[in-house]
Amino acid sequence: MPDAVAESAPEPFAACFSIPKLIAWVAVSGGMAVLALLFLLGGASGGQLFVLVLGGLGVLFFGGIAAVHAMRLFDRRPQVVLHDRSIYVRAHGEALIPLRSIKSVRTDGLGQISLILNKPAKYPIETRHRRFLYRLNGSAARGFFGDVWIRTNVLDCSRGALLDAMAEHRPMTEFEKRLAERIAANS
After folding, report:
1. According to DSSP H, which parts of 47-158 are helical?
2. How far apart are CA 123 and CA 54, in angstroms?
3. Contacts of 9 (CB under 8 A, 6+ apart)
4. Crossing angle of helices 49-72/19-46, nearest 10°?
């Protein structure tokens, strides 16, 4: 039997919040909040209740998004870390999730990576804001978000770079190891 293929541990991968992406999010959502504020003021001066309510909701929604992203500008901690065959997603919780626990990975056109886990109850959502979003979406939440979701549109890496790092860090199956040994023996 040929010698086993030497497996070297890949370099740890870490992704932090991207300052330019966050500034863009603050500018766009802040601009929408200002427009909603103008809408609100127009409704208040005209005595139109519907416009007043709609403007107030717009200010709260878009202003909230701008405020959250503005606070993230000062958070320089790693948000996603891949090492030791596991992934850590700060927004999900403190648990390290072994990559072998991931059943499937989905992506969308908006930069979201959704991880479907074999046993999601083993790695529950620990952060309040994510639990709130999950409950708000009800039975459609798993289909929309997956069990763990990562928004790369605010990170300093691309979706492709994060997926490549996940592939590099995932443990090889026995079949893949035997195939690599056979290829190495025939080289």
Report:
1. 49-72, 128-136, 141-145
2. 38
3. 84
4. 160
Q: Which two tokens stand for residue 122?
A: 């083993």
* Pair of tokens at residue 133: 């979003």
pLDDT in tens, 100-128: 999 999 998 888 999 999 999 999 999 99
* Residue from 65, 53, 72 nearest 155 by CA: 72
d(CA 171, CA 72): 32
Cβ-based neighbours of 142, under 8 Å, separated by 6 or more: 116, 120
Q: CB 59: neighbour CB atoms within 10 A?
A: 20
pLDDT at residue number 1 = 41
CA atoms of 129 and 142, how far apart (whole Å) = 16
Separation between Cα atoms, residue 131 and residue 90, nearest integer Å: 14
- pTM metric for this prediction: 0.80
Q: Are strands 97-98 and 80-83 parallel, antiparallel or unpaired?
A: unpaired
Q: Name the one residue in this structure whose structure tokens are 């490549």.
A: 164
